[in-house]
Every structure is written in structure tokens, then in C-alpha cells.
Design goal:
Structural class: alpha/beta
Largest sheet: 6 strands, parallel
Strand order of the largest sheet: 3-2-1-4-5-6
Helix content: 40-55%
Number of helices: 8
Oligomer: single chain
Number of domains: 2
Shape: globular
């Protein structure tokens, strides 16, 4: 008998399942810079690289496929997600555009990363998708998303620690440094839900 799925976990892709530093070498190459990941104190990389939002959008439009193909896995995310797959509902909700679905699914397949759904919403506003899928918690690296999701849905959000998301956090947002840390926190949440 198949075990009942305990948690529906909303999971961002870029900077959460992929390494948050993976965009920096590509942008350095394109814009002739020598910035380090640690220099990226702002989520908006147009400001970090001193280019316009339009220039960044054009760059992402032209380089998105390469970025999404070459991005390495963030730590041991692949192993942990494989362990969760039979117990939890894994719903990836990403700002990537729908036209990048094939390259996204190829990347998931290459790293053997399991999923139940992949929802490419094409915008940083993931609230409607998170509501539609009924997520119980969310894994994210963008501070603004974490704040919106935790406040609107009253769910815990695990925010992966990066140079660009430093801020004081409300009680429902938990800063995490590694996927092992997330794994432990999910086990605690799981126990709390199953013992009710």
C-alpha cells in the first residue's frame, strides 16, 4: 500500500534546488565583470551589475536556456528530494517561463530529481500557484517571495541563506544554510502533523 503524502511542499527552483551562485560566472562572462557571488547583496542583479532592468531581461532571454542547463545542484538537494518523493507531494513553483519547460525537465531528469508537478509561472508572484496547489510549506531564496507567501498563506517558509536576502525575519520564515538543515526541519514539521 502506497503511503499517504504527508506534506505538500512548494519548492522554488533557481537558487534553491540549483546553486544560488550559478548565474554569476555567466553574467561575468557576458558583462566583462569579475564579481563574486558574495558581492551580490541584492536580488536584482541589474543593480549589482550596473545595467538596466531591460538589459538584464534581454540577457536572461538570450542566456536562460544555457543558465538552466548548466546550473549545478544546490548541495545535496537531489538526494534529499529523492528521499522525500514517496512521502511528500513535491510541487516546484518557479518564476521561469513556460517556454523553458523542456530544459527544466531535462535538468531534473539528468540529476534524477523527482517531482509531482512543475509549475513555471513566469513571474516572481507565486502566491496564486501556491494557493492552487495547497502547499503546506515553501522553500525559497528570494526574501520578497518568502515574506509574501508566509504572510498570505500563514505557512512556514524555509529561506536559503544568501547575500541578497539578509533581513530580520518574521516568525514563520526560517533561515537555512543547507539542505540537511531543511531535512531536519521537515522531519519536525512532519512529526507535528502526524501526531495531531
Amino acid at each position: 500500500m502506497k503511503p499517504e503524502k504527508v506534506l505538500t511542499i512548494g519548492i522554488d527552483i533557481d537558487g534553491t534546488v540549483t546553486s544560488p551562485s550559478s548565474i554569476v560566472p555567466l553574467m561575468n562572462e557576458s558583462f566583462g565583470k569579475d564579481l563574486r557571488y558574495e558581492d551580490c547583496f541584492e536580488y536584482n542583479l541589474a543593480n549589482v551589475y550596473k545595467i538596466t532592468d531591460a538589459e538584464f531581461d534581454k540577457w536572461l532571454d538570450e542566456n536562460g536556456e544555457r543558465l538552466y542547463t548548466e546550473a549545478p545542484v544546490h548541495g545535496n538537494a537531489d538526494q534529499i528530494l529523492r528521499g522525500w518523493h514517496s512521502h511528500h507531494q513535491l510541487i516546484y513553483i518557479s518564476a521561469r517561463e513556460a517556454r523553458h519547460r523542456a530544459v527544466t525537465l531535462d535538468w531534473f531528469s539528468r540529476y534524477d530529481i523527482p517531482f509531482h508537478e512543475v509549475d513555471l509561472v513566469g513571474s516572481h508572484d507565486k502566491l496564486a500557484a501556491a494557493k492552487r496547489w495547497g502547499v503546506d510549506l515553501f522553500l525559497e531564496d528570494r526574501l520578497e517571495n518568502a515574506l509574501q507567501l508566509s504572510e498570505a498563506l500563514q505557512i512556514p517558509v524555509f529561506l536559503f541563506d544568501t547575500p541578497y536576502n539578509q533581513s530580520e525575519l518574521p516568525p514563520l520564515i526560517h533561515r537555512v544554510k543547507t539542505w540537511d538543515e531543511v531535512q531536519k526541519m521537515v522531519q519536525v514539521l512532519n512529526l507535528a502533523r502526524t501526531s495531531v
